[in-house]
Amino acid sequence: MKKLKVIELFAGVGGFRLGLEKTNKYQVVWSNQWEPSTKTQHASLVYEARFGSENHSNEDVASVLTSNIPDADVLVGGFPCQDYSVATTSQNSKGLIGKKGVLWWSIHRILSEKKNPPKYLFLENVDRLLKSPTSQRGRDFAIMLQSLNTLGYAVEWRVINAADYGMPQRRRRIFFLAYHKSTTVYKNLKKANKLNWISSEGTIAKAFPVLPQLKIDATFSLEEDLVTLSNTFNKEGKLSPFLNTGVFCDGTVYTSKTQPKLETKKTVLKDILQNGEVTPEFYIDKKDLPKWEYLKGSKKEVRTAKSGFTYNYSEGSMVFPDALDNASRTIITGEGGKSASRFKHVVATPNGLRRLTPIELERLNMFPDNHTKLEGISDTKRAFFMGNALVVGVVERIAKELFTTINS
């Protein structure tokens, strides 16, 4: 069976590509990585060092002509969580322009301008996408679903915590797949019992099983006009109507709160540690320990804002040092560097307390050791990459199942 051709957007250091290529069923024919806020394009340099520079674009995707992007079967990407509201209408973009610089609309533009758009989309985002913005919970996701519907796609989504399925990090992300109406998968989804699709028959349910589901928790349709949808969606609602799992087909949302079918074989923090190979700079100096203990500890104190306003501040304690017999907490972008922090991981070893190394952070995302090691790239920057990355194992399992679904 021939490999599926892939366009990879917002490629970072290549987590999506690693997951796809591990299946041996996908071939990336064009990739793009551009970081607007930095002069040196560190992530793109790592990507090119690992995968080569051929067919890789390091320019703002919003300025890339669609005609310069080759045709492909699948479009993938972990795109930034931004404000997706529809700003205005215009004749030149099928009646809609999202806010400038919002990268969702770059995906939308590529799909709408391509004569042969990708038949499948495989996308990832932070799970708060389902309930943003706070003023109109769920509006952003509703806009994305309806804009895909307008382009002829049906969608299935699920929030997956990698640790529920035996992976080494508690990292919750929303993954969604979209199927073009010209595909057999779309036709199967359209006629399927939506509860069965969500709980057992769908691509994501097969890759990541859930406990038996008794009912669809909510069904509702979305306003077709994107500007009206943007202005009116869930104006009064305190809660998002989108639950952690669902499908969207032909203008109708079907959504349920599913529970993962937990896997018994687990990888825990202890399993990924580099034993005896860690250099002194990762160890916490005894004199800095009180600062770490304060930041990790519980607090009830009076604080004063810059404006002079005083307020009561409280927060609970963090486990300190981190538990070694559990999957790790989520890596964040500020994981690197020596300074004390509430959110950095600290482990107890025979030689004392220490922070995690870049290799250990890579392992928590299931990247190969030293994937991000490159001359001129600091350990802090490597930690930042992993805070932005996804868990490769999640992509690999969905990609395998997607290939089977497409070819069955």
List the helices and strands and how they pair.
Blueprint: E1 4-9, H1 15-22, E2 26-32, H2 42-51, E3 56-57, E4 74-78, E5 86-88, E6 97-98, H3 104-113, E7 120-126, H4 139-150, E8 153-161, E9 172-180, H5 184-191, H6 194-201, H7 203-207, E10 218-221, H8 226-232, E11 245-249, E12 252-256, H9 289-296, E13 299-304, E14 310-315, E15 346-349, E16 352-355, H10 358-364, H11 379-388, H12 392-407
Helix pairs in contact: 1-12
Provide structural commentary.
By secondary structure, this protein is an alpha/beta fold. It folds into two domains: 276 residues, Rossmann fold (3-Layer(aba) Sandwich); 104 residues, Alpha-Beta Complex (DNA Methylase, Chain A, domain 2). The chain has twelve helices and 16 strands. The strands form four sheets. It has a ten-stranded mixed beta sheet, sandwiched between helices. The protein has a two-stranded antiparallel ribbon with strand order 5-6. Strands 13-14 form a two-stranded antiparallel ribbon.
Please sum up the structure shown.
With 408 residues, this protein is of the alpha/beta class. It has helices at residues 15-22, 42-51, 104-113, 139-150, 184-191, 194-201, 203-207, 226-232, 289-296, 358-364, 379-388, 392-407, and strands at residues 4-9, 26-32, 56-57, 74-78, 86-88, 97-98, 120-126, 153-161, 172-180, 218-221, 245-249, 252-256, 299-304, 310-315, 346-349, 352-355.
